[in-house]
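=== RUN LOG ===
request id: a7f3
mode: sequence -> structure
chains: 1
length: 127
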Amino acid sequence: MKPHFGCPVQATVNAISGKWKVLAIWHLGFGPKGYAQLRGLLPGVSEKVLTAQLRQLKADGIVHREVTPVSPPQVTYSLTAAGEELLGPMSALCAWGTRHLGVPPNLPRYPGVATGNPSAAGARPPG
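=== RESULT ===
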C-alpha cells in the first residue's frame, strides 16, 4: 500500500489511483463484466496493465474476481460492497469536474445522480 500519512482521503485516493482504475470501477458499477468485456470498454489499455490494476483493486477490497472452472476458465469481475460505496463519491467528483473544470461527462451516468443531486449520490446503478 502506498503511504497515506494517516489520512483516509489519501488512502482512498491511493486505492483508486491508476490510469484505468476509476474507469474500471465505473463500468463495473453497472454490473459484473468478463475480463474481455471490461477490456473492450477501456480502449488503449494493455492486458498487462489491466490485469495488474484489477489485482490491486481486488487486494484493496474494491473488486471481486470470480473464476468459473470451464475450459477455458471464465473470469468475471464485480464490485464488492466497498467498491459500490465508491460510486456515490465518484458521481459527486464527476459533477464537480463538470462544474469547475468544464469537462463534460462522456460515460453513462447512474440514475438519480446525473444532476449531481447529493441525496442520490449513494444510488446504486441498475444491474
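=== NOTES ===
DSSP finds six helices and three strands in the chain.
The chain has a mean pLDDT of 86.
=== END ===
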